[in-house]
C-alpha cells in the first residue's frame, strides 16, 4: 500500500464518509439521459440555408504578414459574392493547421474545392477575388 491508502485518502473511503453508496442522485434516477434526441439508429440529414463554409488555416494566418487584413478581405469578398449571386454569405471558419504549410501563403478550402481534392493558396490581398471565385465554383 502506498502513502495515500495508509492515510485514508482513497476515493472509495471518501464516498462512504460522504454517504454516497454508488447510486445515482435521487432526482436524476427517473429521468432519461437525453430527452431531445429521437430514438433512431440512423443520422439526421440537414440542408443548410447558406452555402457551405470556407475554411481558412489559422496557423497560416498568424504566420504571414497582414494575416488579419487578408482574413477581412476574404470575408468582404465572400459578402460581395453573395450579394451578386443572391442568398447568404458563406461563413469563414478559422481552422487549425490543414497540414500543407506553405511559406508565404494562407491555405483555404471549401466544400467545392475539397470535393475536387484541391486547396486554394492565397498570398496577397489582391488575389482574394480570384480565390473566392475558385472557392465558390461548384464545377
Task: Please name the defining characteristics of this protein.
four-stranded mixed beta sheet; globular; 139 residues; 4 strands; alpha+beta; 12% strand; (2Fe-2S) ferredoxin domain-containing protein
Task: Spell out the blueprint of helices and strands.
Elements: H1 3-7, H2 11-18, E1 54-57, H3 58-63, H4 67-85, E2 92-95, E3 106-110, H5 111-115, E4 120-122, H6 128-136
Parallel strand pairs: 1-2
Antiparallel strand pairs: 1-3, 3-4
Helix pairs in contact: 4-6
Biased composition (Basic and acidic residues): 1-10
Organism: Rhodopseudomonas palustris (strain HaA2)
Region (Disordered): 1-46
Question: Describe it for me?
Answer:
By secondary structure, the chain is α+β, with helices and mostly antiparallel strands. It has a domain at 54-136. 19% of the residues are buried. Helix 4 (67-85) packs across helix 6. It has six helices and four strands, in the order ααβααββαβα. The mean pLDDT is 82. The chain has a four-stranded mixed beta sheet. The protein has helices at residues 3-7, 11-18, 58-63, 67-85, 111-115, 128-136; strands at residues 54-57, 92-95, 106-110, 120-122. The protein is globular.
Amino acid at each position: 500500500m502506498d502513502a495515500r491508502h495508509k492515510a485514508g485518502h482513497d476515493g472509495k473511503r471518501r464516498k462512504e464518509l460522504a454517504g454516497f453508496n454508488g447510486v445515482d442522485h435521487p432526482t436524476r434516477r427517473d429521468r432519461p439521459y437525453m430527452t431531445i434526441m429521437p430514438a433512431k439508429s440512423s443520422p439526421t440529414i440537414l440542408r443548410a440555408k447558406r452555402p457551405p463554409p470556407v475554411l481558412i488555416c489559422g496557423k497560416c494566418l498568424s504566420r504571414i504578414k497582414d494575416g488579419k487584413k487578408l482574413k477581412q478581405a476574404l470575408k468582404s469578398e465572400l459578402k460581395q459574392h453573395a450579394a451578386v449571386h443572391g442568398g447568404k454569405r458563406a461563413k469563414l471558419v478559422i481552422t487549425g493547421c490543414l497540414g500543407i504549410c506553405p511559406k508565404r501563403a494562407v491555405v483555404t478550402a471549401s466544400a467545392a474545392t475539397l470535393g475536387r481534392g484541391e486547396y486554394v493558396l492565397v498570398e496577397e490581398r489582391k488575389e482574394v477575388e480570384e480565390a473566392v471565385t475558385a472557392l465558390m465554383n461548384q464545377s
